[in-house]
């Protein structure tokens, strides 16, 4: 009986992670690297920033410069009938946007195992418009009709000079 209970606990933990931002640092706790699938700080299924409260900027970017955003698809929800995507966007007006896309969409893919963790480094150009408090958002829209919460959001609080 205890063996089955432990198995259920592990399964619940594995089912709770989907998208994490490493650089710039996402809202919430600092993330360990590497981490296993099911990391709770990566489970944010609520638009636009996973119900995480905005804070002070954690990074200040130079306007017009390139920047490599590093994130992880921590749990793959690929759905063949309606394949999803990931993207990176910025808002000058807080969590409610509007969000301006900074990257092309990154197509979801068949990882052949939901617990696959895939790291991405996507180069974006930092906009030339300065701001003292902006929101950089990475989202994973899985379009998976079989999931109760199929889409995932992470945000980082940034500034641009």
What is this entry, summarized?
By secondary structure, this protein is mainly beta. Helix content is 8%, strand content 35%.
Structure characteristics:
161 residues; mainly beta; Immunoglobulin-like; six-stranded mixed beta sheet; three-stranded antiparallel beta sheet; globular
Topology:
Elements: H1 2-14, E1 19-23, E2 59-61, E3 66-73, E4 85-91, E5 99-101, E6 106-107, E7 118-125, E8 131-141, E9 151-160
Specify the biggest β-sheet. Answer: 6 strands, mixed
Under CATH, the topology can be stated as Immunoglobulin-like
Whole-number total of structural domains = 1
Which secondary-structure class do the elements indicate? Answer: mainly beta
In percent, how much strand structure appears in the residues? 35-45%
How many strands appear in the DSSP assignment? 9
CATH architecture: Sandwich
What helical percentage do the residues reach? under 10%
**Spatial gap, N to C terminus:** 58 Å
Mean pLDDT level: 83
In DSSP terms, counting alpha (H) and pi (I) runs of 4 or more, how many helices? Answer: 1
Shape: globular
CATH class assignment:
Mainly Beta
What Rg do the Cα atoms give?
A: 16 Å
Along the chain, the helix and strand elements come as HEEEEEEEEE
Give unreliable regions as ranges. 1-17
Domain Chitin-binding type-4: 56-158
Protein name: Chitin-binding type-4 domain-containing protein
Signal peptide: 1-17
Keywords: Signal
